[in-house]
Amino acid sequence: MVINGVRVRPGQSINIDIAIARLPTHTLIDLPVFILRAKEEGPTVLISGGLHGDEINGVVTVKRLLEEEILSPVRGSLILVPLVNTYGFLSNSRTFPDGRDLNRSFPGSSRGSLASQIAHILTKEIIPQIDFGVDFHTGGRMLTNYPQIRVDYKDKKGVQLAEAFGAPFTLNSSMIDKSFRKEAFKSKKSILVFEGGESMRLDNQSVEEGILGIRRLLKHAGVIEDSIKEAKTLKLKESFWIRAKVSGIFIPTVSIGEQVRKGQMLAKISDPYGQVKVPVKNTSDGYVVGLNNSPVVNSGDALFHIGKIP
Ligand SMILES: [Zn+2]
Fold this sequence. Notes:
By secondary structure, the chain is of the alpha+beta class.
């Protein structure tokens, strides 16, 4: 295996820093990549976090896999990239300083924007090496996701990997143009997207579910030996958002992860004076897979992300 001109032999574990660019302060920014190779042949698996720089749960998940030495491959190889978007991480931002979203910048170019340059490095150096991968994300600001794997149900191999991962939920999610997942899939490589918690907020449950899922997936793939048991994921069909019909103070009456019925009241939205109270009704049987944590909402705001029961 050769990454960024560095040869990594079976049985070797090394860290490679891929130089990206300099900050305006001339501080060098690089992309640290951690490679663990077993002596025996087997699949190569990517585990990445922080593609969106403010989605810290994913960074912490991959960091903990490294620091707690949870993964010791007996077959194949692991490529861990705990923090893909250093720029966003520095500025508590999903994107790059020019506003570009790395996950809409693939395949990228060495002469493009910063996001495009990093996309190009991942396309050129990482995707060709891997068999499959898991990319760790979170919801947005004040928008939390219950731990879930997103995969396109048309990707049969991806669905099998999601079942082995065993997250609480698996959601059907079609691939977005110019995303990391779609770029990898062009070479028939499935990248599962894990979503858990919200941006800029540590959520231990999401981190734990991410670590357990990686252990189950890698055991299933024969990469690690582990005593962990299989877990059944609940596969949901398409998902939709219930939006606020009025503005006001948003008080949910159900919790994230909960099963909800069609017609059930999910929340109340009231004015600040105790005069008006409007119920928010559910429109389809399913599970609450995402929730707006903001206490104040505007008409049209996304409130509940509901994954439909198949
Ligand atoms: Zn993300």
